[in-house]
Structure formats: C-alpha cells, structure tokens
Specification:
This protein is an alpha+beta fold. The chain folds into three domains: about 90 residues, Rossmann fold (3-Layer(aba) Sandwich); about 60 residues, 2-Layer Sandwich (Dna Ligase, domain 1), CATH 3.30.1490.20; about 200 residues, D-amino Acid Aminotransferase, Chain A, domain 1 (2-Layer Sandwich). Helix content is about 30%, strand content about 25%. The strands form three sheets. Strands 9, 10, 11, 12, 13, 14, 15, 16 and 17 form a nine-stranded antiparallel sheet that branches. A four-stranded parallel sheet has the order 3-2-1-4, sandwiched between helices. Strands 5-8-6-7 form a four-stranded antiparallel sheet, covered by helices on one side. Helix 1 packs across helix 10 and helix 3 runs antiparallel to helix 4.
C-alpha cells in the first residue's frame, strides 16, 4: 500500500487499484475507461448496487464513515472522488492514510462558493461581481451595490439550479433570504451576468504540472439541468482558445490534479466570466467519449496516476444530449432500431446508460453522443425526434 499525501508525486502503473469516493455514473464511466487501461477500482458509496458498484468492488457505507474510509485507504493505491460534496474531513483522513493526489485542499475550496471565487480571482481569472451575505440588511446593501438582477445562492451544496434564487425586484429580497438562510448555509449574492452563451472547458493537470484542455463546449440548459453540449461551440474560434487558456490558468492557480471543469459565461462584448468549477469529470465533458482522441475519463485516470496526458484533439463535431427519466424509454427504442432520420442527416448516435435502478422525472439516466458532419445536423435530429420536448 502506498503511503503519502497529495503533495507527493507518484506514478501508478496499470495493475494499481484506484479508490473512488462516490459510486455514481461519473465513477462508472471512469472505471470503464480505466479498466481498459489495466487499472482496478473500488468505491465507497452508501447506495447498494450503485452504477460504479455494478462493475467494481463496493464498500457500502456513508461518506463520513471513518472505518469505511480506512478500509478504502487500505485497499487503494490512489484515491479520487467523483463528486465534490464529499466530507472534507474524510478526504483529509484519506490524504493522511493513503495517496490522494487531488488533495483535500482543492475539495475544501470548491465545496464553498466564496472560497472558490476567491481562489479563481487569485489565479487572475474574472468572476461575476459578488458579495458575502450575512443578514437581510447585508443582502439589501449588496443588491443596491451590485444592482438587480442578482442571484442569491447558498455557498455550499446546490446543483442543477438548487439552492439559488434569481432576484429581479427589491420585493423579492426578504422572502428569498428567509428561504435560503433557513438551510443554515452561508449565502453569496452574485451579479446576474447577461450572457450570450454558457460554455465550459475541461482541463486536466498532472502532479508534475502538465496541463491540457479539451475543446470548448457550448451548453444549453433546460430547467437548470444540462440539456445539450455542442462541440465545436458556436462562438468565435478566438473566444474558444481564450476559454481554454483561462481554464488552464485556473487549474494551475488552484494547483489542481486530475480534471477541473470550468464553467463560464460569454457576454455580448466578448468578455468571459467563470461561473463555477468542479474538480472531477463533468456532464459537459461526456462528448469526449467518442469525439476526442482521449476521453475525459481516461484523462482523469492518466492525471491522478501521473501518466503523460492524452491527446485532446476533436475527431468529429458532436452534440451530447442528456437522457432524463422521462426520455429513457423512447431513447432506448429510437437508438436500438433503424433510424432513417439519423441516416439522412449523417448522424451517428452513441447511447450511454448509467445503470440506475429507478427512472425518475428529471433524473439523469444516461446520455447520447451524436457524431455528425455539422452540429446543426445533430441538433436537427434532436428536434425531429420530439423526445426532448418535455
């Protein structure tokens, strides 16, 4: 068993065991690629028969179970995480008992919006103007300073639009503060950025400091859930290059190891603002699975194991479309039969399902990568199927 901490640089060769905090779909897809490379996987995850647990060994216990964390540390040569809401204390324990190249500091930073924003600014990358909110009075003062509209968010937790409220009128302030302060989380108020596009870049960094980024994705959200990722993004190539440079700058500034997903807003005047970051594989990077020389999941394994990073060249235009519970049956039917519409548009669909037992409305059950000659052809296919109309 390798002893050490995230500040050390170790090269883990195939045959090594990768421990994963979390057993969801991101860990599953990481293991599918990592297993092909010769690595073995074990996960700590409370839900039995989890997506990752179906294809790897699983320790069934809560994330804050110290005994289970020690068992994971005893069996894994390197430990990573597949979502950031992992108990930072357990991550610190694992860092002391095992090898966690991402370290607990990155997790501690990205779990908290205020810490995250300060770190991004320290890296010299712009974020939307923001203020820490400690009372209703401070909310009133901050909203007057920043100007409405603004977005009030919990500093911790929250995903897919949860834990945030858009404020457009002063009359909303009191109710919004009451609702979000009742969670017990610290609050942050962000200036609403009037954007023309939401984009993201997945960057990877090794313990040695090698950094590479994937092509910029243009992201379309519906009901605060990612619906489409479009690559190449339909924005000027110069902006795409600048977005990649900023993402790599953030990865270096945060001293990240592994993947760092950097979400940004693009404004009418060409300015880019980082919205948030995630130190793990990301939904908007799923397109890399077929469309790039190296997938984001292989790249993450390469990075945490201190192997040279893979080539990130885009091999084909691609549109990734999320499959939610309400889409699942029709997507399976459509992608397992002859599809004349896809053939006429020159679109090749690649379905990925996550192995989740319960199909629920708005629950992410899988995704489809649509390889195409032009992203407009893939978008036309999505429109023609009528699957994603609800």
């Amino acid at each position: 068993m390798n002893q050490g901490n995230g500040s050390q640089r170790k090269t883990l060769l195939p045959g090594s065991v990768i421990g994963v905090l979390g057993g969801g779909q991101l860990g599953r897809m990481m293991a599918l690629d990592g297993t092909k490379m010769g690595y073995r996987f074990i996960t700590l995850e409370p839900t039995p028969n989890s997506p990752l647990g179906q294809i790897a060994e699983q320790i069934i216990a809560s994330y804050d179970d110290v005994t289970a964390a020690e068992e994971l540390a005893s069996q894994a040569d390197v430990i990573t995480y597949e979502f950031e809401n992992v108990d930072a204390g357990v991550a610190k324990l694992l860092e002391e008992r095992s090898y966690v190249p991402q370290g607990s500091k990155l997790l501690y930073t990205t779990q908290h919006r205020l810490r995250e924003k300060a770190a991004i600014e320290a890296a010299g990358v712009p974020v939307a103007p923001y203020r820490k909110i400690t009372s209703l009075e401070s909310l009133k003062e901050a909203s007057a300073e920043l100007g409405l509209p603004c977005v009030l968010k919990t500093a911790t937790g929250g995903y897919d639009g949860k834990g945030q409220i858009v404020l457009r009128q002063e009359e909303q302030l009191e109710a919004a503060y009451a609702e979000l302060s009742s969670t017990g989380a610290e609050l942050v108020l962000e200036k609403f950025i009037s954007f023309t596009s939401e984009i993201s870049v997945i960057a990877a960094r090794t313990p040695e400091g090698e950094v590479k980024s994937f092509p910029t994705a243009e992201n379309i959200h519906v009901n605060n859930i990612l619906h489409l990722s479009i690559v190449p993004a339909r924005i000027p190539s110069e902006v795409q290059r600048r977005a990649c440079q900023l993402a790599e700058q953030v990865a270096k500034g945060l001293n990240a190891v592994g993947l760092l997903a950097v979400e940004m807003f693009l404004t009418e005047d060409g300015s880019l603002y980082v919205n948030e970051v995630a130190p793990r594989p990301h939904n908007s990077g799923h397109y890399t699975m077929e469309a790039c020389t190296t997938s984001q999941f292989e790249q993450h394994v390469r990075a945490i194991c201190n192997l040279p990073l893979g080539d990130t060249t885009l091999l084909s235009p691609v549109v990734m479309v999320n499959v939610l519970g309400q889409h699942l049956d029709e997507v399976i039917r459509r992608t397992t039969m002859y599809d004349p519409a896809a053939e006429s548009l020159g679109v090749v669909s690649k379905l990925h399902l996550y192995g989740k037992s319960d199909s629920k409305h708005n629950r992410k059950m899988g995704h489809v990568n649509l390889l195409c000659g032009s992203v407009e052809d893939a978008l036309a296919w999505v429109e023609q199927t009528n699957i994603w109309r609800h």
